[in-house]
Amino acid sequence: MTAAALLQRARDLGFQLEPRDGCWLAVCPASKLPPALADDLRRHKAEILRLLNPSRGWGSLPPLDLPLVTLKPCPTPARRDLVISYLSRQCGDRPLREWLTRRKAVYFQTTAGTWDRRLLAYAAARDAACWQLNRTEAEVWSLLEGLESCFEDLKAKQTATTARH
User: Which of 23, 48, 119, 164 sits in a 20 to 30 Å window from 127, CA-based?
Assistant: First the structure.
């Protein structure tokens, strides 16, 4: 059964499904959920969450009320630059650029200006990336580092091919 069919089946049975905190699937009324359906929902949770959050992804705009993460971030400089670069490449989209600018200002106010501008930019970019990719900060780092590694491998192969010709 596909995730879409499973989602429709749960709705037909009177259950309401909604995403919670990016990675949880809430089912109401949970107390009446048959065990077999619960198992199917668990197996297809990632696909169902993607169906329920269709607006996420590259260039998508996080909600204005996305909760702040007030714990001071401490990424390595390389990870900070990687996340900021990921969002910067999307900033041809004016609403996203404005969202990031507003987010940095809110972080500045919330932290009473105690974070330097690079951490403010990182915190805003991290929040957007985590929301867009529906992943934790560590998962975003891992994903972007993996992509960067793939690009470096491709560049090396292209350089080697060019040098041979």
Answer: 48
